[in-house]
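Example (one chain per record):
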Amino acid sequence: MSNFIEELYYGNIEPQELNTELLGKLKKKLSNLSKKEEQLTVRLNGEDKELFQNYVSAYIELSTMSNADSFISDFRLGAKFTYDTFVENQKG
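Predicted structure:
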């Protein structure tokens, strides 16, 4: 177990690593999203363009915070499963 933690600490384990099947799908979605953003940016002028760019930035901030919260919650859930498996069973 400590070897796993050490590997994680030294960056040899990538928690956000995606499987290759999902990665391909995500790249397609990201490409489509980027094209749509580019099309909108070209069409908009002045205040509308600035408003849209602020919207995109706000969405990225929200998404980043949400993803971090999900990661933390999932990590805690995994720790609870591990605790229950190895510690609670020994008490009973």
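Caption: The longest helix spans residues 46-91.
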